[in-house]
Design brief:
There is one protein chain. The protein has 191 residues and is α+β, with helices and mostly antiparallel strands. It contains three helices and 13 strands; from the N terminus they run ββββββααβββββαββ. The strands form two sheets. A seven-stranded antiparallel β-sheet has the order 3-4-5-6-7-8-9. Helix 1 runs antiparallel to helix 2.
């Protein structure tokens, strides 16, 4: 099944996976303001604004994870004291779904003292406080739902989320939040 980009958020952990039919030449690397999804060295040139973005940002003891340009504004809201639920809701509502050929939803989650998950689609918005591991994706599973997932280390989360069996995985990132924040990446494991 092809579900596009997806996140799994649980209490104290999370992960994000890029699955792509159209732009498989991508990787996740550490950037100036967080972790960035961007083209690999062998990627063809494109003017698509949705294929390169910050996918993970840290603000204090909170980690914001998502599939696009909304990650940074959510992180900024948290930095000024807005609650995770309100930061996620207001930014998703303000930026709305992506205006591409597929009306791609924006998905995001916040891992911290209170973990949240959310999505904005063409037909609505859904933001929930996480009480068990939950998944939301850009396609097929675009309403947050419970998902059986064992936490493990950040490295194990990145590897497991990449190999869940959804079609066309490209790269993934896993994170654990506790006393410390641990982040790990799995890039192009099938190449």
């Amino acid at each position: 099944m092809y579900i596009g980009r997806f996140i799994i958020i649980g209490k104290g952990f999370g992960g994000y996976c890029v699955c792509s039919r159209s732009f498989p030449e991508r990787q996740i690397i550490e950037g100036k303001n967080g972790w960035v999804v961007g083209p690999t060295l062998d990627a063809p040139d494109t003017n698509n604004p949705y294929i390169s973005y910050n996918c993970l940002g840290v603000e204090g003891k909170c980690v914001v994870i998502g599939n696009g340009s909304h990650v940074d504004p959510i992180r900024e809201k948290i930095s000024i004291g807005v609650s995770p639920r309100d930061a996620l809701s207001t930014v998703l509502l303000a930026l709305d779904y992506e205006k591409d050929a597929y009306d791609t939803p924006r998905i995001a989650g916040i891992i911290g003292e209170e973990s949240t998950i959310g999505v904005v689609r063409k037909d609505g918005i859904d933001v929930q406080i996480v009480d068990r591991p939950m998944l939301v994706s850009t396609y097929e599973k675009n309403i947050p739902c419970g998902y059986e997932f064992d936490r493990g280390s950040a490295e194990k989360i990145a590897e497991k989320i990449y190999t869940l069996g959804f079609e066309f995985p490209v790269c993934s990132i896993g994170v654990t939040v506790g006393e410390d924040i641990d982040i790990s990446v799995a890039n192009n494991m099938d190449r």
